[in-house]
Amino acid sequence: MGERWIGISFAKQLVLFSVLSTASSVADAKANLTKITWAHAVNDAEFLTRVLASDTQFIEADISLGYLKDDMNKEREIPIMAHPPATESDISLETFLQRILQFNREANDPSKVKGVKLDFKSIGAFERSIDIIRASYDMTAFDTWINADILPGPVDNTATVPVDPTRFFTAARRLGKATLSIGWTTRWGPDFSEGLYTEAQVDAMIAAIRANGIDKVGNAITFPVRGGIVANSVNNMIRLFCALKDTNNVTFTIWSSANDAVNVEKLREFIFTTGLDRTYVDVPDDLHKKLHLDENAFSNTCKKTLQARCFE
């Protein structure tokens, strides 16, 4: 199964990603989630057009409350595609979802269908978006992720206020079986080497999920974890998986900002411990290359399966 690396310039953004060969199937991608490809901050109409025409498999976009650019008098605050501090966009959440839904329904090849990751920047934006998502998209037919940082996390991060978890889960239950992408706020960068997702932070996440009944309704959960931090947190991430594996389909989504300090060997250990079928890798192109995640590489890195680690 071949893989080629390409770079495409979209609007004012440079997106570098790996693209599955046309011979690859959806089943192949599910077996090795590290090969799923991403487009980020798809927050304007032209960028969305270009991404829909590309081979990208997952579209990530930010939702904030604000105004459309043609609303000159700022009379109607609505969920728009924008990352704070921006409060204007040329595309609303409603139009964004309707365009992707139309594209997916008309796709004549299942490998062309796009998944959607909606990243909510405030609880107000999320609560105002529930009815729009229900009316404008088909979450039962197409992969839909609802993303928010719901707990404070590493490293001594107090500057970013997380989305209120109770209100988040209350609203999320109205979206049925959408995948919940729930994480911690983080502080990291090129000068960091110490820090991890602590036992207390993992316990807080487990408690929030159980207190709000998400273990009982059984939504799939993916935990977005920052590459440089999760590389130091293998044992605590195993404990998180083991606590929820019997009630929820648990995966991890590794992300990283440009120039983040990352111990590549430790991060690779994490990926092969959790497994290629449970780990999405959404990182800058240069880091992805260093990880050497072709299917047969480092097959002996992890001696025990993730399930087996739960009984140690």
Description of the structure:
The chain is an alpha/beta fold and 312 residues long. It has a single domain (33-310), classed as TIM Barrel, CATH 3.20.20.70. 33% of the residues lie in helices and 23% in strands. The chain has 12 helices and 12 strands. The strands form 2 sheets. Strands 3, 4, 5, 6, 7, 8, 9, 10, 11 and 12 form a 10-stranded mixed sheet that branches. Helix 6 runs parallel beside helix 9 (234-244). The chain is globular. The two termini are 35 Å apart. Residues 1-27 have low confidence and may be disordered.
Structural topology:
Blueprint: E1 3-10, E2 13-20, H1 26-31, E3 38-39, H2 45-52, E4 58-68, E5 78-81, E6 88-89, H3 93-106, E7 115-120, H4 123-136, E8 144-151, H5 165-172, E9 179-184, H6 199-211, H7 214-217, E10 221-226, H8 227-230, H9 234-244, E11 250-255, H10 264-274, E12 279-282, H11 285-291, H12 306-309
Parallel strand pairs: 3-4, 4-6, 4-7, 7-8, 8-9, 9-10, 10-11, 11-12
Antiparallel strand pairs: 1-2, 4-5
Summarize the structure.
With 312 residues, the chain is α/β, with parallel strands linked by helices.
From N to C, what is the helix and strand string? EEHEHEEEHEHEHEHHEHHEHEHH
Q: Give the overall silhouette.
A: globular
Global Rg: 19 Å
User: What's the helix count?
Assistant: 12
| DSSP summary, beta strand count | 12
The CATH class is identified as Alpha Beta
Low-confidence stretches: 1-27
Q: How is the main sheet built?
A: 10 strands, mixed
Helix content: 25-40%
Topology-level CATH name = TIM Barrel
Pfam family, one: Menorin_N
Organism: Anopheles melas
InterPro entries: Menorin_dom (IPR019356)
Keywords: Signal
